[in-house]
Design goal:
mainly alpha; two-stranded antiparallel sheet
Length: 346
Amino acid sequence: MALDTAVEESTPAVRDRAGLWNRIPRGLITISIGVLLLFLVSAVFAPSSVTKGPLLGMLPFAAVLAIVSLGQTLVVQQGGIDISIMGAVSLTVVIATHGADGDDSRVAPALFTALVVLVIAGLVNGFLVGRVGLNPIIATLGMNAVLYAIVLGYSGGIPQMNADLLSSMASGLTFGIPNAVFYAVAAVIVVTVAVKRTVPGRRFEAVGANPTAAWAAGLRVKNQQMSAYVWAMVLYWLGGVLLAGILKQPTAYQGDDYLLPSVAAVVLGGTSLLGGRGFPVATALGALFLSQLSNFVLGLGVSFAIRTIVEALALVIGVALYTLNWKGIRARMTDKNPSGSPPGGS
């Protein structure tokens, strides 16, 4: 019997199924289960949060968070973090609304202007981090200040109504689903294919996983690191465009709400803050999880402060799951030296 079982488990079909299961990222499995459990808990304890109205209100913002989190994922894969996401989203919103000034014919030039500005900002971020070797937090914090200076200089801090074209692009419905969701799905597909199925994408992940080994293999490490910040800005731009269309009269500080949640979505999706492989689909599910989590907490009637604490706890859990080396921590805690002499001592 044992021999028959061993033979059965060694068949190619069984090995193929086991190999397929092992190829599924742990972060994707974990966040998928988390999303399902969250919706079940929401249905039991806050059923109003999973009705049609709240879901239609939540999904567009989940789509925006998913898109900007994809950009943050690319940066985190290279061992960095992009604080300028706040200024980038805010700048896009301001240029999209003030530049168009309610005129549909002026929307395209306004969006193109915002894209050009953000690409330049991404190039500067990438140069400072990849070429100069500046700390990513310092470099992107400085860029965030520059972007906000442009925001305030351009808008004066005064909100502006969006154009009808922007509104229909982002907040309209197709087959009963908010249009922003389709943009998010398309962004996830494009990023996933680019990173996982192309040669430049595999080189990108190799550099993030081990820059020294990648350099030794002849890869252009600095160029890959620079590209992360540029493509991240493109995704921030897309998220900002959708956000400008979702909100009827967005403020000049709309990007402030996306720094902590974007990082939380990245780590909940299984990407380590130390860099390496990224999982775009898992990141998008992390954004959905956080958005529904806010919906759920709001349905319970708690304050905004509690919602912020819950987001911070989600980030802590993600870091604990995917960034900390628990085996190493346990090994250090259980390592005992009976002789009392220091390691390596005589």
